[in-house]
Amino acid sequence: MDVFEEIADERRALALQLADLTPQQQASPSLCRPWTVHDVAAHLVMPLEVSTARLVLAVLRERGRFDRANVRVTARLARRPFTEIVDVLHRRAHVRFTPPGGGPEAPLLDVLVHGSDIRWPLGLHREVPEPRLVTALRFVGTAPAGLVPRGALAGLRLEAEDVGFAQGRGPVVRGPAQALLLAATGRAVALEVLHGPGVGTLRARLAAA
Asked: How far apart are CA 179 and CA 27, in angstroms?
C-alpha cells in the first residue's frame, strides 16, 4: 500500500464533501475544540502550503510549543474563504508531507481523524477503506505525544468490529474502527458507541488529560 496515495485519496474525498457544506455547517463546532469545521479544514491544508522551514520558525516563535504554533498558523490560514481552502485541499492532495523524523502514518492519521472531526457532528458518512483504518490504528499505539493523549491506551486492548484489527493487552475497548481512532486521539464523544470493560478506564483517562 502506498500510504501517500491513500492520504491523497482521503483529502480529495473530504474536499468533495466539504464543497457541499452550507455556511452554517462551515461555522459549526467540530470535535476538535475549539475549532470550527472551517478551522479544521484550514489546518488540513497547512502541510500542503506551509513549508517545514516556515513551520519550524513558527514553533521557535512560540518558544518550542508546537501546539501553540499550530493554532497560530491555522488561524492565519482560516482567514481565507472556505471555498479557497477546499480547492487547495483537492488540488494539492498529492503533496507528500511528513513531520520531521516521521513517516506517512502521521498525516494519514491526521486526515482520518480530522475528517471525522468534521463529519461526526454534521452527521456525514465516509466509508474509509479498511487498509487505511488498520494502518492508522496500528500507528496510534506508538504515536508521539500530541497525537494521542499520553498514557491513554496503556494496558488496554483495542478491537475493531468492522475491520481486521486488534492490538494491545488488557481490558478491551471494542467498536467501529473510526470511533476507536477518535477515542484514542482524545475525542471522548466517540466512547458513546464503544463498549467493553476498558471503556471506563479510557473515559477516565481522557477526562483527566
From this structure: 23
DSSP string, 62-97: TTT-HHHHHHHHHHHHTTS-HHHHHHHHHHTTT---
Bridge partners (DSSP) listed for residue 160: 175
pLDDT tens-place string over residues 6-49: 999 999 999 999 999 999 999 999 999 999 999 999 999 998 98
Rounded Cα distance between 16 and 172, Å, is 36
Burial class (CB in 10 A: 0-12, 13-18, 19+), 70: middle
Rounded to whole angstroms, how far apart are CA atoms 126 and 119? 8
> What is the spatial distance between Cα 42 and Cα 74, in angstroms, rounded to a whole number?
6
Q: How many CB atoms lie within 10 A of CB 9?
A: 16
Rounded distance, CA 191 to CA 153, Å?
A: 13
Beta-strand relationship, 166-167 and 157-160: antiparallel
Residues of the chain where predicted confidence (pLDDT) is lower than 50: none
